[in-house]
Structure formats: structure tokens, C-alpha cells
Amino acid sequence: MAMGYRLAKFGLGQLVKHRIFPFRGVIFDVDPVFANTEDWWLAIPEDVRPKKDQPFYHLLAENDQSNYVAYVSEQNLLADDTEQPVGHPHTSLIFAEFREGRYLMRPRITH
Fold first, then answer.
1. Average pLDDT, integer, range 32-39
2. Domains of the chain (ranges plus CATH)?
């Protein structure tokens, strides 16, 4: 493990929900530390702005109004134990199937 990084608490295909805001999603990528723009980070109100030195997760997210991609710090996520699939239309592009409360990644073609 690289110095300064810690292991991610959540994994690819896992269902999570936001600790504060009413949305849930499925993790499709993880950054070991903050890897978005400074403007994005500064747009978060200072009193709830997360630390940068923690894993950040890319989610196919949903709330009552829409589906979207979210970028969320580990400190703001909780495991979602509903075992219900996410209604995001792009889940089938990234994941092969939903089984036993989690998504299974599609095989990737690499060289």
C-alpha cells in the first residue's frame, strides 16, 4: 500500500447511501484520495466540506427526482442494506448483473 493512502471501506458494485443527503447509488470507481477539481471542492460549503486525504467514490446515483453520477467522500457514505437495485439507466453498461444485494462488474477487455 502506498504511503499516505488507506484501504477503501466500500467496494465496486456495492450499494451505498449518502450520510446527509437523500440519495443512494452503486460504486463504479474509487479514487484513493480526492481527484476532482479545486473549484468542485470549494463549491462545497466549508462546514460540510470533506477532507481530501480519504477515498472518494464515483456512484451511479439516484434520488426521488433523477439519476446522475455522484462523487462522494468515504466519510459521507454508509452501506445501503436495502438489497434493492439502483434505477440508474447506465448500470447495465458497467455491471453484468445484480445478485444478492450487489452488482457484479462486466469483464473488461484490456491489452
1. 96
2. 15-105 (2.30.30)
